[in-house]
Amino acid sequence: MGFYTDCVHAGQKPDEKTGAVITPIFQTSTYRQDGIGKHRGYEYARTANPTREALERNVAALEKGKHGLAYSSGMAATDTILRLVAPGDEVVVTANVYGGTYRLFEMVLKQYGITFHFVDTAELSEVERVLNSKTKLVYLESPTNPVLRVTDIRKVSEMAHAVGARVCVDNTFMSPYLQTPLELGADIVVHSTTKFLNGHSDMVGGIVVLNDDATAQKLRFLQNAVGAVPGPMDCFLALRGTKTLAVRMRQHEENARVLATYLAGHKGIARVNYPGLPDHPHHALAQQQARGFGAIISFDVGSLERADHVLQSVRVFTLAESLGGVESLISHPATMTHGSVPEAQRVKLGVTPGLVRISVGIEDVDDLQADLDNALRA
Ligand SMILES: *Cc1c(COP(=O)(O)O)cnc(C)c1O
Fold it and tell me: What's the domain range around 23?
């Protein structure tokens, strides 16, 4: 089936008993058993819930994977993946990963004897330099937030597999509409469903997709053992969201391309980061490994004061954390997502005081452009 069809139907069929077209919200913690040791596949809702299973099957199909496992947040999903590595093991991580991922690795998991190498994975020589026989996992984010550097997923996967390491890609920024890392050679895909997959900024969740049966079995055990599972209502919302993923992404992308071109031509802007622009350093790679460039753009307006003015002046964009919802959001990475990164490191990453990030929504692009145009008029 095609991607649009899978968005609407994959993993779901009308309810056997009632014919309900939409998978019901199974808001129950436990299930009646027919006798000792006899149940219908459901005993207790941490272990299994039909609404959650429908979401897991649906996103697995979209990511071209066999197994899906849903979690209570993107961070919980990542935490569970990291339980596949043991003390003494090493993990290679994209230097500018999502701030929460950095915090989880450095401030929570490091104390359990796992070594994390944060390198610019867009530079293959940097990856080569730290890979060794102790490397068990390579954790990639591509494109990165907020400067949108792109990692060659296929090449890094080959390099990682050569030393016996797995590759996990955080695909939150692209969604499977634009990029399917498993098809590029990665072993595991992780998402914050909070963002584009749900798309309506009304729940928090995470999901993992993979092909390998043995690893999936381990993760399924951990999902139940650790217990960071999503509630049925949140699964229902995410599943409703994925039905429109393709049409939303098409509009997000179309709007983002228009705004990136507009911003690139604006006199008051020093630099625009968007992989879809021909002068982006990874434009060719982005074009080759993905079906589009996404809806996140960052641009430098020159100073903190000017960034503040822009953020205060917008009327259609909303000043807020997060991304991937139908509504356009605007934020200031240096003080928001990267507030805890030391300034020298921030500047090295390209997160300058004047940098503004937008998550382009699905509103009329003319309204979005007029809003930015007005806010940029100092
Ligand atoms: C938001 C986000 C996460 C974390 O997900 P939560 O659902 O907030 O826990 C991880 N990675 C990326 C790229 C994100 O944008």
Answer: 3-242
Q: Which stretches of the chain score pLDDT less than 70?
A: 378
Return the CATH number at 38: 3.40.640.10
* Residue 128 CA: distances (Å) to CA of 111, 156, 157, 163: 25, 9, 12, 10
Residue 340 has what pLDDT?
79
Domain co-membership, 33 together with 168: yes
Last residue of a domain, one of 208, 242, 276: 242
| 75 and 50 Cβ atoms separated by less than 8 Å | no
Whether residues 171 and 282 share a domain: the answer is no
* 168 and 117 inside one domain: yes
Q: Which residues line the pocket of ligand 1, CB cutoff 6 A?
A: 73-75, 98, 100-101, 141, 170, 172-173, 192, 194-195, 204, 206
Q: Is the pTM of this model over 0.85?
A: yes
Among protein residues, the one with the nearest Cα to ligand 1's atom 8 is 74
Is 271 marked active-site? Answer: no
CATH of the domain at 293: 3.90.1150.10
How confident is the model at residue 378, as a pLDDT?
65
What are 152-185's pLDDT values in tens digits?
Answer: 999 999 999 999 999 999 999 999 999 999 999 9
Ligand 1 atom at minimum distance from 206 CA: 7
Which of 178, 209, 242 is the C-terminal boundary of a domain? 242
Known catalytic residue: 274?
A: no
Question: How close is the Cα of 67 to the center of ligand 1, in Å?
Answer: 20
Which of 72, 75, 198 most suits a substitution to test ligand 1, by most atoms within 8 Å of the C-beta?
Answer: 75
Contact status, residue 125 vs residue 102, Cβ threshold 8 Å: no
Task: Write the DSSP string, 156-181.
Answer: HHHHHHHTT-EEEEE-TTTHHHH--G
Q: Which atom of ligand 1 is nearest to the CA of 193?
A: 7
Q: How far apart are the first and last CA of the chain?
A: 50
Q: Are residues 227 and 266 in the same domain?
A: no
Gap between the Cα atoms of 289 and 269, Å rounded: 29
